[in-house]
TrEMBL record:
It comes from Dyadobacter psychrophilus. Gene3D superfamilies: Oxidoreductase, molybdopterin-binding domain. This is Oxidoreductase molybdopterin binding domain-containing protein. Residues 69-212 form the Oxidoreductase molybdopterin-binding domain. Pfam families: Oxidored_molyb. InterPro entries: OxRdtase_Mopterin-bd_dom, OxRdtase_Mopterin-bd_sf.
Length: 230
């Protein structure tokens, strides 16, 4: 009964949070662009399957800052703080006790490759947001990785159902090379918007540029607008 009550509270909080951002989410280019750039069949969001300038790959290239932190499940923690009512630090056990989501989505890297139909498992960002109850002032997040990487997202993008913090890819534990034990994925944006080896989610009242955004990459990163650089 206690677990069901906890789940009901998370779901209720998630729905209220999504309702708060529903209008902004519906207007984002990855779901509302009338002239998206790309080719192929139409995906579930109404966009062409392959964004402009991308090529399909079966392999999963490894890209990082030259440092791959090795974080055990015992040592991994996720801090969620900033403009929230209830900041929290989750252990691996806490994280795995949250509602688990499975999804299949595409992964678009700004370096021009796309890996299609990847099966994922993890926790929805929206459920994590529901746990901490963002203040009315919260408009953006800054994600931090154990490798000191950072990247920014607006809440209307982060709260979409397919934005997950994943621990499983291709039906096996997420490999260290790809950000394991946990990374964030952002299927409707270029993949650099999802931090590998994620360690902290900081809610912000104003936008703050992350590692690549400070170095000339796009603040918004919409694949179907070929929106790679600022």
């Amino acid at each position: 009964m206690e677990e069901n009550s906890k789940l009901d509270k998370i779901v209720d909080a998630r729905m209220k949070l999504k309702a708060r951002f529903e209008q902004q989410m519906a207007l984002t280019p990855s779901v509302s662009d009338l002239r998206p750039m790309g080719t192929g069949e139409i995906n579930r969001h109404g966009m062409p399957k392959l964004p402009a300038g991308q090529v399909r790959t079966e392999k999963w290239p490894v890209l990082d800052l030259g440092f791959k932190p090795e974080i055990s499940h015992q040592k991994w923690k996720l801090v969620i703080d900033g403009e929230v009512e209830s900041p929290i630090t989750l252990s691996w056990e806490d994280f795995m006790a949250l509602p688990q989501a499975e999804d299949v989505s595409d992964f678009h890297c700004v370096t021009t490759w796309s890996r299609m139909d990847v099966p994922w498992a993890g926790v929805r960002f929206s459920d994590l947001a529901a746990l901490v109850q963002p203040k009315a002032s919260a408009k953006h997040i800054l994600c931090h990785g154990y490798d000191k990487y950072t990247t920014n997202l607006s809440l209307e993008e982060a709260l979409k159902d397919d934005v997950l913090l994943v621990h499983t890819a291709d039906n096996k534990p997420l490999e260290r090379d790809h950000g394991g034990p946990v990374r964030m994925i952002t299927p409707q944006l270029y993949a650099w918007k999802g931090s590998k080896w994620i360690s902290r989610i900081e809610f912000l009242s104003a936008n703050k540029l992350g590692f690549w955004e400070l170095r000339g990459y796009s603040n918004t990163a919409y694949p179907w607008r070929n929106d790679r650089y600022s």
